Amino acid sequence: MPTLNWIGKEKVINHHRDVPYKILEHKYGFNETDGELNNSVNSGNKIIHGDNLEALKSLLPEYEGKIKCIYIDPPYNTGNENWVYNDNVNHPKINKWLGQIVGKEGDDLSRHDKWLCMMYPRLRLLYNLLAPNGIIYISIDNFEYNYLSLVLEEIFGRKNLIETIIWKKSYGGGAKSKHIVNLHEYIYCYAKNINIVPNLFLKHDPAILKYYKFKDEKINERGPFRLQPLATTSMDDRPNLRYPIIFQNEEIWPQKQWQWSKERVEAALNTNELVIEKKKEKWSVNYKQYLKSEEGVERGTKLYSIIEGIYTQQGTQELKSIIPDTKFTFPKPTQLIQNLIELVCDRNSIVLDSFAGSGTTAHAILNLNKQDNGNRNFILVEMEDYANSHTAERVKRVIKGWLDTEGTGGSFDYYELGKPLFVGENNEYLNEEVDTAKIREYIWFSETRQAFVLTNNKKDTPYFLGKKEGTAYYFIYEKESLTTLDYDILSTIKTKAGQYVIYADNCLLPKDFMMKNNIVFKKIPRDVTRF
């Protein structure tokens, strides 16, 4: 497989592992009834202000492998620095980061090199957060299209490319174009594992449902159906699709060829899935298109690889109606993102957007939840200072309603990136300013790769973290004093397990005793895993 090399790649290819882990500091909650609240609303919806590389790292303990759909609209790197959403990699924060990570080589980086250095570790973390059957969408234009293609192949694998969607973003214009009027962008659609991604359908347009009016003996299994011609006028040379169907002792031939193989047609005849009629001496052969599968799942309609009828201008008008003084000029239309999410997500999925911008992704999810009473959750990450004044503000107005538009309802919690978990020149110490509960969450995840759930085991020591696959975990930690694993501490442990992993500052237990009792001691902070 061809790979892409650029200046600085060797410095960023594994940088996602070295990104400092920072906690998320809750600032306020918001709901439709009470507005802003000091306490968390715990709805699962989050808006995070901070560098998205660090924010993605902070999401790992709770969300690794759980995000069903990721949509990102990263800077296109066109060089435009006048937009509110800076479409360039010459952002001061990015330049500072490049200097720290890439070093002096960063002085020689082209705009393409900088963009790739910025994107690669973020894509690696997004890959880790994506569920095994999850899908990521990435909007891009032709400036970085080819480079992004090779990077995505490297991280996700070429076989997991579902489609490169072409979005016709504008319905015309182009007076400023020098050569050819560009009316489209691209949306990469990758699976984490395409082998376990089911068929993707949009919900039927209500106008289409009227055609599903027929009934047959399978009504209780599959639901109503409509008819579709089995014959096709395709000029493809497919001899295996040209054969007679025997019906009422007559041979029925297609004008050119059938859509299905002979074996598939014979099976459909046996299961009464074909409607064959003779009108004016001509035979028609149609197949029943069922609204639901035999399992009762509604099939819906397919999304085309070329999206038309949804334009950037619509997104701009929509946002201006919500926030009249907005300075965003090219936000994505809500309907575009809504279609992409609906294609992938069930009613309880988690959706992540780590380049949140004006908050369109949250708007789309709130719309979907209102339509079908769903419980989809959104996580938005925005680096810029407008995260609260604009991104979160839009979500607030969508929830409560604006002008003559009824609110969607809903709630969210707003966070800032907080203190790092590790401090010191080489990150060798635990940061005692971090709440102990956050440290315990980190320790549990580093050991089990699962989200921490507070236990109600009142019989055990408060140092007990939990038990997984026969191993009990304990984190014996006090900010104000050193802790020691000895026989007295051991006597407080009540959970029965095949093995014990115990963190403390020191250990006085004999090695042969620990081996005999399957006790693994880990010294704080030396043996705390960095991920």
- Strand arrangement within the widest β-sheet reads 2-1-20-3-17-16-4-5-7-6-15
What is the distance, rounded to the nearest whole angstrom, between the alpha carbons of the first and last residues? Answer: 28 Å
Q: What CATH architecture of the largest domain do you see?
A: 3-Layer(aba) Sandwich
Shape: globular
Helix content: 25-40%
Count the beta strands. Answer: 28
Quick tags:
Rossmann fold; alpha/beta; 3 domains; 15 helices; 11-stranded mixed β-sheet; 4-stranded mixed β-sheet; 28% helix
Helix-strand blueprint:
Layout lengths: L8 H4 L9 E10 L3 E3 L8 E4 L2 H12 L3 E6 L19 H10 L9 H19 E11 L4 H12 L4 E8 L15 E8 L14 H4 L9 H4 L2 E5 L1 E2 L12 E3 L2 E3 L4 E2 L3 H9 L3 E6 L2 E9 L15 E2 L4 H11 L11 H11 L5 E4 L6 H13 L4 E6 L3 H15 E2 L2 E2 L4 E10 L1 E2 L5 E2 L5 H13 L15 E5 L2 E5 L8 E2 L1 H5 L7 E6 L1 E2 L3 H6 L2 E5 L8
Parallel strand pairs: 3-17, 3-20, 4-5, 4-16, 6-15, 16-17, 24-26, 25-27, 26-28
Antiparallel strand pairs: 1-2, 1-20, 5-7, 6-7, 8-14, 9-12, 10-11, 13-14, 18-19, 21-22, 23-24
Helix pairs in contact: 2-4, 4-5, 10-11
